[in-house]
């Protein structure tokens, strides 16, 4: 069986962040800067255009760039995300296969010389 792995960087909010900030504000900031967020529409020459905001690639290409983002606390203070979140590297599966909404795996195999595939299947079960 072949399994592909990739590096995943989960982000965990500290207890301080939950006490002082709304956790939704942290995730909204991360979504806007690292992903994108719909802002509004505008008209130009009788055509409608959607406006999405996102940080430029050079400001979101490194996990350390998260520390350069800031959020406003409930007390109206500006706080760096480097004080609130911790970025760690972990390893996980690249994709998770599903069949009928259940997690599944793909099994690859071959029968030995002189055996049929049906014999090999029933031997393994």
Structural write-up:
The chain has 3 helices and 10 strands. It has 125 residues and is an alpha+beta fold. Strands 1-8 form a two-stranded antiparallel sheet. The chain has a two-stranded antiparallel ribbon with strand order 2-7. The two termini are 16 Å apart. Mean pLDDT is 79; it is low at 1-7.
Summary, kept brief:
The protein is built from 3 helices and 10 strands. The radius of gyration is 24 Å and the shape is elongated.
Summarize the amount of helix as a percent range.
Answer: 10-25%
- SS field, number of helical segments: 3
> Could you describe the largest sheet, including whether it forms a barrel?
2 strands, antiparallel
The coarse silhouette is elongated
Kindly estimate the percentage of residues that lie in beta strands according to DSSP. 25-35%
Physical arrangement of strands within the biggest beta sheet? 1-8
Rounded to the nearest angstrom, the distance between the terminal CA atoms is 16 Å
Query: Please, what is the average pLDDT?
Result: 79
List segments where confidence is low: pLDDT < 50 over at least 5 consecutive residues: 1-7
The number of strands is 10
Summarize this structure as a short list of keywords or feature phrases.
single chain; 125 residues; disordered N terminus; alpha+beta
Per-chain topology:
Elements: E1 5-8, E2 11-13, H1 15-20, H2 23-34, E3 37-44, E4 47-53, E5 70-72, E6 78-80, E7 85-87, E8 90-93, E9 97-99, E10 102-104, H3 117-124
Antiparallel strand pairs: 1-8, 2-7, 3-4, 5-6, 9-10
